[in-house]
Write a structure and sequence with these properties.
The complex is a heterodimer of chains A (about 120) and B (about 190). In chain A, α1 crosses α2 (about 20-35), α2 packs parallel to α4 and α3 packs antiparallel against α4. By secondary structure, chain A is mainly alpha-helical. Chain A has a single domain, classed as Substrate Binding Domain Of Dnak, Chain:A, Domain 2, CATH 1.20.1270. Chain A has four helices and one strand, in the order ααααβ. Chain B has two domains: about 1-85, 2-Layer Sandwich (Heat Shock Protein 90); about 90-189. Chain B is built from seven helices and eight strands, in the order βαββββαααααβββα. In chain B, a hairpin with a 4-residue loop joins β4 (about 70-80) and β5. Chain B is flat, with a radius of gyration of 18 Å. The chains are: A mainly alpha (about 120), B alpha+beta (about 190). The interface of A and B includes residues 49 and 100 of A. β1 of chain A pairs antiparallel with β1 of chain B.
Chain lengths: ~120, ~190
């Protein structure tokens, strides 16, 4: 992420917190590794899915359960968690257990009418 | 948008079973044909646990085109060595069900406890609704497609999408569940 052009509250929070930034960078590495390893025909769907994930992440990291805007450490923690979960998905690794590196991989399907 | 997880090059019967179970879930998902207003359902997966012996994954399907979009959760638990989808009897002792429901009850207050009672304003229907919810909790606890497995935690997801649109979640420590598990079953393997 280019922090010089960070525009949303979530992007600014990632750039302001070293741990959230590191989690975002690890997620970005997993994205790049997957993107380079899948056929061209699937890349469009991967990018659409990533855009959708960013939108979902921003929604999930907007408000706490009582409806108050997430700020400060709580916002950073939420963003770290979302980035970590996305990294695991992109690399086909589990939340728990040793995993099966290289065996399980993400797939993406996009309908004809889907935007992105 | 549809995104999921599968074995890229399945080598064993267990890996093929996992993939075919994912494919079975995909049959419930509508893919847009490009006509006006037609959208693809949302399908996503999370890998809760994976090892050479066991894979546990959560599937979430939602229907964004619906006027009342709800999420449906399913869990895929495959014993890779035995090439079988795990059933309640494979994982837990038969008598475990009562204890699982009791251990989850404090976490389900919004659904079947005092908070749920207070929330249900219709006095006539309250008892019926709560009775139905109790039944759903028990049915769900006895169904491994409602559980995600792990070495640290096991999670029960109760979908009442058809009625209240409430999804309730109960997390239990795997270590505390050991006495309820079948002697041969190891969550972490």
């Amino acid at each position: 992420m280019n922090c010089q052009v960070a525009s949303t509250r979530q992007e600014k929070a990632i750039c302001a917190d070293p741990a959230a930034k590191a989690a975002d960078e690890r997620m970005a590495e997993a994205f790049a590794a997957l993107r380079s390893s899948i056929p061209d025909s699937n890349r469009d769907a991967l990018v659409t899915d990533q855009r959708q994930w960013i939108s979902t992440r921003n929604d999930l990291c907007s408000y706490d359960s009582s409806g108050q805007p997430l700020v400060g450490p709580a916002l950073s923690a939420c963003l770290r968690k979302q980035s970590d979960q996305r990294r695991l998905f992109l690399s086909g690794m589990p939340d728990d257990g040793p995993g099966l590196p290289g065996s399980i991989r993400p797939f993406f399907l996009k309908g004809k009418g889907d935007g992105g | 948008m549809i995104s999921g997880l599968r074995f890229a090059a399945p080598q064993s019967a267990g890996e093929r079973l996992f993939n075919s179970t994912v494919d079975g879930q995909l049959k419930n998902v509508h893919v847009s044909d490009g006509s006006q207003g037609d959208t693809t359902d949302d399908f996503s997966m999370t890998l809760s646990y994976a090892s050479p012996g066991l894979v546990s994954a959560q599937v979430v399907i939602s229907y964004p085109a619906s006027a009342h979009p709800v999420d449906y959760h399913e869990h895929i638990n495959v014993d890779l060595a035995a090439a079988r989808a795990l059933t309640f009897e494979n994982v837990f002792r038969r008598e475990a069900l009562d204890s699982l429901v009791a251990q989850c009850r404090p976490q389900l207050d919004d659904f079947i406890g005092e908070a749920a009672k207070a929330d249900l304003s219709d006095n006539d229907m309250r008892e019926t609704i709560l009775k139905d919810r109790e039944k759903l909790v028990r049915t769900s606890a006895g169904d491994m497609t409602r559980w995600s497995l792990g070495s640290r935690q096991m999670t029960l997801t109760i979908d009442d999408a058809a009625n209240s649109r409430i999804t309730s979640i109960c997390h239990l420590d795997t270590a505390r569940l050991k006495p309820l598990m079948q002697p041969g079953f190891e969550a972490a393997r």
